[in-house]
Amino acid sequence: MRRRHLRQDFDAGFSADLEELGAAPARFYCHRRVAITTEEKAALWKETGADAVEMESSVIRTICKEFRIPSATVRVISDDANQDLPLDFNALMTSEDRINYLKLFGAVLSRPARISKLIAFQQQTIGAARKLGAVLEELLRAEHC
Question: Model's pTM, two decimal places?
Fold first, then answer.
């Protein structure tokens, strides 16, 4: 089972509820690129000491801090440090940081043996999203009771 990780502002007030739901305090590093290989992930850990690397939360937390909105980052890790991703997703991104499906189709056609790895990765991602959704649902219930 993959661990849920959290980081919160000191006064956000979510820590006890999140820890009760199985979240563990963690240090995040917000990176501009998707870390694809185990070597890249190891280098990021060595450089930053972070427990997890992600791409989205820093912008959201900066805006929340600017407007004095308490916030917490809650993440479920879909791929761990010992796992190479099946494709270089950075090469498949548009300038708006979205997947270019034509490039994805080309990448899959050029290496059809990776289809099974992509399907397995998709299942990991779906499982992680479900776990995150369950934790957030429980957190919202706790906050509104």
Answer: 0.78
